[in-house]
Amino acid sequence: MSALSAGQIDGNSQTWSDTMAPLAKGIALKTILVNDNSAGNDALMVGPKIKSFKDLKGKKIALEEYSVSHFLLTLGLIKNGMTLKDVKVVNLSAGDAAAAFMAGRVDAAVVWNPWVNTIQTSGKGKPLFTSANVPGLVPDLLVVQEKSLKAKRKDFVGMVKAWYDVEAFLRSNPDEAAKIMSKVVGLDAKTYKVFLPGTKFFDQNANLQAFGPASDKTSLLGVAPTISKFLLDNKLMEGKVDFAKGLDASLVKEVAGVK
Question: Pick from 92, 110, 133: which residue ends a domain?
Fold first, then answer.
């Protein structure tokens, strides 16, 4: 991300929240493709005694501060009439948060896979709130330097087309796809395949919708104010972002043959 913001590389795969801080600084970046959304791979894990958010009042919740886990917990609390002041946040890395929860040192943990699956299969916890409950708010994007887009547009159009081929392969050959991707992260294919349902991979139609108007609350423009507020509230970003300026739907539209 730092290399992209510094202009040392042409593009990077990163989240919408990762992209906003450099945009607020005036760095000319463009989001040109949505690869996926987290749809359950990030979760607030609780023990059997926790039945609802109200049961979390005053409880210790382990998570990695200012990460997507912190963001997810904030959203879950707000949706249930609570705030971070109602709980005790314990700042730990995702792996340590999962370990602390399973050891009984905290009452809940917000983690991502593989730790979500680790906790579930241990029988010590279950998800109370996941990224599936907030569609569109945890997207992974292809973000590029504006100058690179102008100079290498044809290459980036090719990348959009290639991604659609990848997405189609993931749908039609999940077992083979799991074998390929699991090698990259050092997991066996069987374990990795468990995570696939927790990710919504974006095809052409999903991308066209994602680059739609702010009136669609799951579009990039629709979720932007919520993400921006979290970053500003936690002093992770300074200044306002022109969300539309950070998006370029023209490549997705060109590949789809629409205006």
Answer: 133
Query: Residue 50 has which token pair?
Result: 């926790």
Q: Which residues contact 48 (CB under 8 A, 6 or more apart)?
A: 126
- How far, in Å, CA of 153 to CA of 259, rounded? 17
Within a domain: 77: yes
Tell whether the model's pLDDT for residue 195 goes beyond 90: no
- Average confidence (pLDDT) over 127-151: 97
Apex 252 CA angle, 249 and 257, nearest 5: 115
Contact 206, 189 (CB under 8 A): no
| Same domain, yes or no: 8 and 48 | no
* β-pair partners for 87: none
Among candidate residues 132, 171, 142, 137, the one with its CA nearest the CA of residue 34: 142
Last residue of a domain, one of 88, 115, 133: 133
pLDDT reported for residue 191:
86
**pLDDT reported for residue 212:** 97
Q: Can you give the residue range of the structural domain that contains 21?
A: 2-39+136-253
d(CA 31, CA 19) in angstroms, rounded, equals 8
With the C-alpha atoms ordered 23, 25, 29, 34, is the resulting torsion angle positive or negative?
A: negative
Instruction: Return the number of other C-beta atoms located less than 10 Å from residue 25's C-beta.
Output: 12
**CATH number of the domain encompassing residue 123:** 3.40.190.10
